[in-house]
Amino acid sequence: MKSPDLSVPELSIVVPCFNERANVAPLVAKLDEALAGIAWEVIFVDDNSPDETAAEARRLAARDPRVRCLRRIGRRGLSSAVIEGALSSSATFIAVIDGDLQHDETRLPLMLAKLRAGEADIVIGSRYVGDGAAAGLAGTFRRRLSAGGIRFAQMFLSTPISDPMSGFFMLRRDRFEAIAPRLAGSGFKILLDLLFNAKPGLRVVEIPYHFRPRAAGESKLDALVLTQFAGLLIDRLLHGAVPPRFIAFAAVGGVGVGVNLAALALGRALGMGFSLAQSIATVLAMAVNFQLNNTLTYRDQRLRGSRLWRGLFLFMLFCGFGAIADLGIARTLYEEHNSLTVAGAAGAIIAVVWNYAISVTLVWRAR
Ligand code: GDD
Ligand code: MN
């Protein structure tokens, strides 16, 4: 009997992708060229992109066993895509690289050599060491943002790293598996998440690369992603004592109280009675809160279509109870011209915990 081909991959390259159809085939070709002589595989993790990135990956996979594809439905998120892709690997080493050709795949063999030699647990592609370059960062705003974020993140790291925001790195899979259960998994910053949660800490080697301009399509980094980044750092500060989602939820709740008070003041100014103005203000605040939570707090489980309406209905119905507590706060503030009393603060805490419990269990429950 002919023995089966046992050339299992030594290196899995995980590629998070969303709407990267045009970049899939060029990336595979570049990997093929860069990784000659290495047993590798590539795992595209696509969040059901409307441009059918997954179908494109499968088309290539049909004629190249080194190409794999993981299609996730009803989910969004770079970090969680990377985590799930990496956990589907059985190779010794895992690399993470963007699907838009911005990272330099020709650095992969050097990164692998460092790991094989045991010089590091993780090798990070850096735009800011040696002759690395961040030329591909679109515009001054993105560059400033990147520099500011890096300085901020460095305050939280025990060993200084020049590019902790890098989305381009390679590590031992056994180390990844050990850290995986502790990862927050939200937002963009999977590398920071890994570095924060590694016990014992990862030995890091950074190697320079040139960050290229995006090949096709557009960046998915936006204000919401940045908010999630802030959440990751807050979580770090609180040592995981409070779930990051709860913090986001409470912050949204704070915005809701602001909306409520503003609408109430407006209603009163327009001559409405307190109860009418407050009822309208409450409904408005709840709708704003629902929308913010749906796009921010529960971004990865965002409700759409009929689920959105069902979610809004449930949210309004049950959080209406929370709003009764809120009414107490508003009345104290508005009518007595008093600052937040202890009772008001207690009411707010009860309301946010109640609303959060309803949201997790009924509105944005994991499907
Ligand atoms: N599966 C999945 N789901 N993939 C995603 C998602 C998502 O929700 N959002 C983004 N991606 C994929 C993109 O398709 C791309 O392949 C990669 O993640 C990076 O996303 P970009 O939108 O291109 O991000 P960027 O170029 O602004 O920033 C990247 O490069 C920086 C510098 O290395 C990211 O990798 C940053 O983390 C990194 O700091
Ligand atoms: Mn990019």
Describe this entry's structure for a reader.
It is a single chain. This protein is an alpha/beta fold. The chain has 2 domains: 11-218, Spore Coat Polysaccharide Biosynthesis Protein SpsA, Chain A (Alpha-Beta Complex); 244-363, no CATH class. Helices cover 52% and strands 10% of the residues. It has helices at residues 21-34, 53-61, 78-87, 108-116, 139-154, 173-179, 190-197, 223-237, 244-269, 274-297, 305-336, 342-363, and strands at residues 11-17, 40-46, 67-71, 93-96, 122-126, 169-172, 204-208. The chain has a 7-stranded mixed beta sheet, sandwiched between helices. Strand 1, helix 1 (21-34) and strand 2 form a beta-alpha-beta unit. It is elongated and about 75 Å long. The chain starts with 10 loop residues before the first strand and ends with a helix. 39% of the residues are buried. Bound molecules: guanosine-5'-diphosphate-alpha-D-mannose and manganese (II) ion. Manganese (II) ion is lined by residues 98, 100, 102, 214, 219.
